[in-house]
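Before the break, one more example. Copy the sequence into your notebook; we will annotate it together after we see the structure.
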Amino acid sequence: MTERNNTCVASAMQRRHQNFMKLLELTYEDFNYDFSQVRFDKDVDSLVRIRCPRHGWINTKAKKLLAGRGCVSCNTESLMDQGAMIYIIRCFDSQEEFYKIGITTKSIEQRFIFPALMPYEYEVLSLQNGDRKKLYKFEALLLRLLKKYKYKPKKSFTGQTECFSNIEPIRKKFNIFDVFGIDSFKRAV
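Here is what the structure looks like once it is written out:
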């Protein structure tokens, strides 16, 4: 295999790991699981190691984590069946302005309670509660539609990869600021 092919494979594996970690962050944001030893480099049937605050280090299948099962000793139902909220906020300070899209199981105030979580002032443009699985799909669609407007904020914070310089394409397509809901997503696809 050539060096170029090795680089492509390594890059794809790194993206797969990053996407997996993003899903874990979203699914388990209200829990104190430690994912520092997670290495997702194969498939969803592979074992990963997480630390539960009550039960210590455990090995579980990646697909069980993705299904929201977490620590099997703690949880008997899937967290993905619980509700969540998708939001669009305008972030700004004296030097920059951009938009952020995200999903949370907390209120916006709780999600951004510390300056390290949101070092900018922000204005909530849209909020919608719903089923976490559907909201995640809807968020993925919005992120894809805004890909060419991706923006990297000057200040670092959790969720900075979901920032954009312009949101007009989704504003027009989904009437987001009139009625923003999963029904808009269903009509669009």
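The chain has two domains: 3-79, 82-188. Residues 3-27 form the longest helix (25 residues). Try to locate both features in your own notes.
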